[in-house]
Amino acid sequence: MMGKRDPRQIEFGDFQTPDALAEQVVSVLKARGVKPASVVEPTCGLAAFIIAAVRGFGSARRVIGLEINADYFAKADARLLNEPRRPVVDLRLADFFSFDWPVVIRELPEPVLLLGNPPWVTSSGLGAMGGTNLPEKSNFQGHRGLDAITGKGNFDIAEWILIRLLEAASGRRATLAMLVKTSTARRVLSHAWRFKMPIERAAVYEIDAANHFDVGVSACLLVCDLGPSPGPTEADLFDLDSPTVHKGTIGYRDGALVADARAFDRLRRFIAEGDGDDALRWRSGVKHDCSAVMELRRVGDGVFLNGLGEKVRLEPDFVFPMMKGSDVASGRVRLGERWMIVPQRSTSDDTSRMCETAPRTWDYLVNHGEALDRRGSSIYRKRPRFAVFGIGPYTFSPWKVAVCGLYKRLAFATVGPMEGRPVVFDDTVYHLSFDTEAEARTVAELLNSADGREFFNAFTFWDAKRPITVDVLRRLDLRGFARACGKESCLVGRSIDTREENGLF
Ligand SMILES: C[S@@+](CC[C@H](N)C(=O)[O-])C[C@H]1O[C@@H](n2cnc3c(N)ncnc32)[C@H](O)[C@@H]1O
To answer: Among residues 243, 201, 191, 195, which one has the least CA distance to residue 220?
Structure first.
């Protein structure tokens, strides 16, 4: 993981490319058939790419390098002194954002290669440090479709630079080849495909960023070949260290990026329309934002230990067996160990009634009222005291199929009641709710089947912080999928509202 860094290094997103990596990139590009007449390195730092390019691309008649940092510029200049092909290099101490890129690129001989490793920083990261290394506001706001990629408030500088360069090079024979965070590469591709930029062919080569840059993020070499018209909205995936071994294909389908274009194309008939089937709706686990008070371990009959190390005797009414995301993901369930206080059955329930129905639990919550009242999230404002979220009749259904959003593998677990009480989950878990064990087991089997996993894999980018999202889960038309697998009759499909009466308490 990243050690302590100089704030200036952060402001300028400064991660210099090792020479060996720059050489490796150039040789992969050559193997792809890249033979540039001119090369542009827009933020060249210590010139690793400039040197690799002048040595590797004998075809390059012009090589332009820009760098904002005077110290780096001087060092880059010195490094180039003894290069036999120094005369083709035009090194400039300049700011990327002050350049008229369409004009610069228009004047270069074709094919043009835009090569480098732009700053790894976001505008809000800069703002937090008082940094100023940002594009001019007027430029920035006039940029086509930029709101869509920046979400207005925060944006990734590398993403901005790449889109700017792709736009500037559109209409020319050019290749963009840049080292960026994988998430940046995906956003750039998504933007380019959305706006029908003339990318004929694209590829993503994953790199070992921890090894090369000492950072704990997923990073890659993004390659986009520009031509007269757009090609398929797909990019092939490779590892830079095994550049001929095809690992998969990401793509742009129905207005969104998909992680596996082939799987998507094969299984697209199972995509749910609209909001889907309410009785088979994925829900998040319970959100309470106060685990030290609300999550407990049972140490005796009706006696629990909270996260503060306090022993407390509680009525059974509002205490439920719970599973955390890690329990669901690992399948190592030790039911009966963890418990959660769920003071409501719906978010509008008046919790103060507990004072009479479960006075010990009420006293416990009042005694920890300060911690609960301090919960920062606005969702608790104007709600009954001690309110929780992510609850409804589905929380109290006896049978569930659950998956943890934080883990890097798809494993759907069937979870049944314990001691006659429904099991609840923390808010890293998504689940479906059922009345019967048979329904839950059938659905878990369907979701864990090869096609079920492949469907979700088509939408899941495993390097994301929370790879499995409720939106991805909700994309599957479970009833249609069950029908195609000959299992529809196993889904009773009763409205979840009737489950409240049948649910176990
Ligand atoms: C991630 S480093 C990579 C440097 C070089 N491209 C390489 O591959 O080694 C980003 C570089 O961008 C430079 N930089 C940051 N903002 C810039 C700007 N507005 N214009 C030009 N260069 C800039 C930084 O000083 C730093 O050298």
So the answer is: 243
Is the CB of 133 within 6 Å of ligand 1? Answer: yes
pLDDT in tens, 236-245: 999 999 999 9
pLDDT score of 383: 87
Q: How far is the CA of 138 from the centre of ligand 1 (A)?
A: 22
**Other Cβ atoms within 10 Å of 122 Cβ, number:** 20
Residue bearing tokens 């059922």: 434
Tokens of 327: 């329990």
On the CB side of 493, CA atoms within 13 Å amount to: 12
How far is the C-alpha of 182 from the C-alpha of 205, rounded, in Å? 9
Tracing tokens 């001690």 back to the chain, one arrives at 386
CB 502 within 8 A of CB 221: no
Q: Output the CA–CA distances (angstroms, integers) from residue 316 to 46, 352, 360, in the order listed.
A: 66, 17, 10
| Contact residues for 379 (Cβ-Cβ < 8 A; gap 6+) | 287, 389
Amino acid found at 77: D
Residue 146 has pLDDT above 60, yes or no: no
pLDDT digits over 10-65, tens only? 666 788 999 999 999 999 999 999 999 999 999 999 999 999 999 999 999 999 99
Supply 32's token pair: 């792809």
236 φ/ψ angles, rounded to the nearest 5 degrees:
-80, 145
Specify the DSSP class assigned to residue 417: -
CA angle, 148 then 463 then 475, to 5°:
65
Please report the atom of ligand 1 found closest to the CA of residue 43. 22
239: enclosing H helix or E strand: strand 234-239
Q: Could you tell me the distance, in angstroms and rounded to a whole number, from the CA of residue 104 to the centre of ligand 1?
A: 18
- Tens digit of each residue's pLDDT (9 = 90 or more) over 349-395: 999 999 999 999 999 999 999 999 988 888 888 888 999 999 999 99
Helix H or strand E encompassing 152: none
* Atom of ligand 1 lying closest to residue 133 CA: 19
The helix (run of H) or strand (run of E) holding residue 456 is helix 450-457
Mutate to test the pocket of ligand 1, among 2, 63, 68, 114 (most ligand atoms within 8 A of CB): 68
DSSP alpha helices (H): ranges in 229-282? 261-267
C-beta separation of 332 from 289 below 8 A: no
Go through the domains of the chain in sequence order and give each one's CATH number. 7-258 (3.40.50.150), 279-502 (no CATH)
